[in-house]
Amino acid sequence: MKVEKDVRIPMRDGVQLAADIYRPNESEQVPALLAISPYGKELQAQSLTLPPQARPSALWNGAIEAGDIRAVVDHGYAHIIADVRGTGGSEGELVGNYDSGGHGEGKDIYDVVEWMAEQPWCDGNIGMIGISYFATVQLLGAAEKPPHLKAIFANGGHFDLYELGYHGGILWLMPRASREGRGGDSGVAARNVKSKSEKVYTTEEYQERIRKRLNDPDIANWSDFVHLLHYPNRHELWMDFLLNPHDGPFWQEGSPMSVAHKVDIPAYFQVKWGRGWTVEGTIDAFNKVNGVKKLDLQPKPPMQERPFHESHEEMFRWYDYWLKGIDTGILDEESIQMFVEGENKWRGVKQWPLPETEYKTFYLRPRHRISENPEPLGAEQAPPDGFYQVPLTVTNETQSVKWKSDKFMEDTEMTGQGALYVYVEIDTDDTNLITKVYDVDPYGNRQLVTTGYLKASHRELDKSKSEPWKPHHPHTRSEPVPPGEVIEYAIKLYPFSNVFKAGHRLELELSCNESISDENAQLLPPDSYHLPSGRATTHKIYRDKAHPSHLLLPIIPKQD
């Protein structure tokens, strides 16, 4: 291949971005695929020398996401890998995540794409490549409508910026690893990076946000974050997450989800089961974009290998059709291809959620059972279950309470989204409610099916945007919990597809903290756990006649 390093690409405001260009040796013009991120173009070149690593390998580096350079070039495409402004070899300033507080990465992508189209080696047909951050920015670029960007292929993107850092209002720590470089993740190749918070808030507002976060018991019991809040100018992109625990204009302005409806070029989305927050965001983005579109809901494990090389054959089928004019049959299939866990089969469907879905109620009952029938007795005869969790400052143990169904008498498919409606009394003003649903085989082995998260103080529902199977929490404010009051919480379960085989059971686990080292955590990126509750809290879970705590789950009827 021909390799050009540190090529300077001019932007409309005079800033120059740095890029490396890999292209076939032949002299004819070829279509091109653009990869752009803050993780450093030199790191992406590791795909030429480093064998792919899977989690939980210590050599798995989540930032090597631009794709297999050699495979791209061998397939007759130029592969352009660029550094976003303020990072790597590029000039300018990066303000906030995805430059949402600055110039805007969508505008830069427009300028890079149109520059590429003018180069003598490019035939003017351009797509984009890469996962996670590289996939997220594809929506930002496509929404700007550069004339020569003919299609996108977005795998594993985070399209809702608030959901990138908060699940149900509970802080997720993974963005710190990906931004700073922790646990084997290289992080941002920072050169000139600023927080969006410092730009949009006055000095007084900024300091007030720091004060409020330092007074939060969850933060106060996490000494590393106390340290960061006292010295905030070292980790700017992560600081934006720490200082903005509520959704609203700060997160929505510049969010890819807010511009998804502007995308009208062909768009192919892929995501793996097992990272529910990313799955939901991908499905929502797929439903919002216009024009020709496809969606793959792929099997576990939840993370791709690094350097990223998977799904390239399907990507080439997509781009050969749209960029080379080759009929690959890519449009002859159903627009959604879904892998059904448990049954371990692919199935094509026309829309999400599946129109034939029937929602079924499963009630929590005494003796840690799940039943299709509600509890007939009151709380006096069927007193609540519960657990007591002290902060991790004084224990390593995570407490929880579990309920388990009878054995399924026949194979039962559940595909879609669901919810847990649970009545809880706590003796503090806040806690986390972390829900996990498992498929348990006859030997007691558990397979995680889906998860749900809700901070108790974020319990407010927007009924106008809610469905019974998909409660919507605006997360725009915190409302302290009155200690001792029994409150119903609606906890959204992330999308999933699983066949519970005959003889298997469904298990529900509820906790306020989670393991940072169990087998599921080991399959996720570094630091992929949620900020633990910092309060010593007793949780009482009511499931009696007056408090019908239940799961609402999506059943797919058997086909005749």
From TrEMBL:
Residues 460-470 have a biased composition (Basic and acidic residues). InterPro entries: AB_hydrolase_fold, CocE/Ser_esterase, Galactose-bd-like_sf, Xaa-Pro-like_dom, Xaa-Pro_dipept_C, Xaa-Pro_dipeptidyl-ppase/CocE. Residues 316-552 form the Xaa-Pro dipeptidyl-peptidase C-terminal domain. This is Xaa-Pro dipeptidyl-peptidase C-terminal domain-containing protein. One of its GO terms (molecular function) is dipeptidyl-peptidase activity. The keyword Hydrolase applies. Keywords: Hydrolase. Residues 460-482 are annotated as: Disordered. It comes from Alteribacillus persepolensis. PANTHER family: COCE_NOND FAMILY, PUTATIVE (AFU_ORTHOLOGUE AFUA_7G00600)-RELATED, PEPTIDASE S9 PROLYL OLIGOPEPTIDASE.
